[in-house]
Amino acid sequence: MALTRWLLLLIFVLPVAAQNTPTTQATPDPAQQTQAKPTQTQEDEAGADYVFKVNVVERSAKAVNYRHRGGATKINFAGTELMPKARGEAKVESKQGYIEVEVEFDNLSKPDKFGAEYMTYVMWAITPEGRAVSLGEVLLNGTRSKLDVTTDLQAFGLIITAEPYFAVTQPSNLVVMENVIRPDTRGRVETIEARYELLERGGYTKNLTDIEPVVVSYDLPLELYEARNAVRIARMAKADKYAASSFERASGLLKQAEQMATAKKIDKKTLIMNARQAVQTAEDARAISLRRQEEERLADERAAAAEREAKARAETEAQTRARQQAESDRETADRLRLEQMAAADKARAEAEARQRALNEEAERQRQAAAASEEARLKAEHDKEELRARLLQQLNTILETRDTQRGLVVNMSDVLFDSGQHTLRPLAREKLAKVSGIVLAYPGLKLQAEGHTDSVGSDAYNQKLSEKRAGSVRDYLVNQSVPADAITSVGLGKNDPVADNKSAKGRQQNRRVELIVSGEVIGTKIGPAQNASPDTSNAGPAPSAAPAPAEQSPR
Q1: What pTM value is reported for the model?
Q2: Buried residues in 309-335 as b, exposed as e (16+ CB within 10 A)
Q3: CB burial class (10 A; 0-12, 13-18, 19+) of residue 336?
Q4: Angstrom distance (rounded) from CA 535 to CA 540
Q5: For the segment 241-250, what is each residue's pLDDT rounded down to a tens digit?
Q6: Beta strands 188-191; 62-65: pairing state
Q7: 511, 379 Cβ separation under 8 angstroms
Q8: Which of 78, 165, 271, 519 allows an S-S link to 230, with CB 3.0 to 4.6 Å?
Q9: Residue 35: how many CB atoms within 10 A of its CB?
Q10: Residue 305 contacts by C-beta under 8 Å, 6 or more apart in sequence?
Q11: How far apart are CA 515 and CA 410, in angstroms?
């Protein structure tokens, strides 16, 4: 199989001293043997150099596009030049929605051989496009380790890197193991030829000589030591200044874990939970701090550049003003006289122009007022015509009169079953016609008002009037009249239009009135009507024969 080179671009902004290699380091790091020139330096408050380094490391590897739900397959792991004796084997199985990786490693060395800040290993999935995804921490059991993880990636290669703690967000360039394709590996092999960011060795510390090696006691969980490491690395990245809230939470979680570690009876599960959360919070604080330091540096650079630009612009303007003043001093009296004459001409022309503008504006306002009045009169005329047309159309169906409240359509109780609120067929036919007319005039508002005579109890009359008004409303809504355009109310015997002492008067009082109003029909046409129908504007009465006088309320 042809090998293709990874171009792993190592870009990390973090203060490091000129001395990058710890004196206690036993194994040389080939990745550090390739040095790139620093691209930028600056001084911090204490006078230490901040070096922004770019290192390029080349490696060869393969990614596998595992067959979807194609069963399990195996790949091997081989140690790099940093840990040549390390080896491993993984079973990779594509399942519905994810891929499961079960891996076993052997002949692993302790990670602190690579530097005082390195305490664990992390397995990464690298896509062919160069994205690195952490799959989990590789915890040592002597020189061996097991790991069972899942990923939603489809095609990826696998590498193992040495890290200061499990919660790192990008791999270091200390790649100690890589996957190796076996002859029986099932899937499509893809070459990884990607450029992505790696942290260089020593990148987590400002000066490695300041870091004391961590002495790990196996009486306590490794996670506690990782938490200590993560918090001190975050502090060296000035997280206590630039990400104080997150750093304070990380320190508090570490303090809780430390207190649990000194208790007589150690709750290891809770201790590990707090320690791992401290690691994660400290890594977040470190990343936030670095980002804010970089933002501060860029802001300072922009401010300095703006200040330089403003100073240069001010100098240029001062020179221009001096030159103009010198030219102005050389002007002759003739020029001054000509300027005065030109100014007088200009003032006269401006005065004339202003007067013309005032005259034109006054004419525009007069025309606008006339047009507005004409439009108002036309709108009122249109409303009157519409109201008259609507009154005429409704009068062809039911007796309708014009009042201050609107057009009042009267429905006598002969359109209901005796003593009931059920609409008779004739009533439904007339209401259907009314609904057709109403739907032709959008914007109308309707209110159905039920009335009774004075026979019977007040409660009975009130309930019957409400039901009859509700029946009219429900039928009109069923005929597509918008529900929010019509309401109903029962008034009982409280608003008679005739004397309840006679049978004829009581029959007139037993009615449902449909009040039609709305802005679209404007003010009323004709005089207001109160207690009796407007015979001048009313149309023909309903064709149904009047019912005989009743002795009980309807």
Answers
A1: 0.44
A2: eeeeeeeeeeeeeeeeeeeeeeeeeee
A3: exposed
A4: 9
A5: 999 999 999 9
A6: antiparallel
A7: no
A8: 165
A9: 10
A10: none
A11: 9
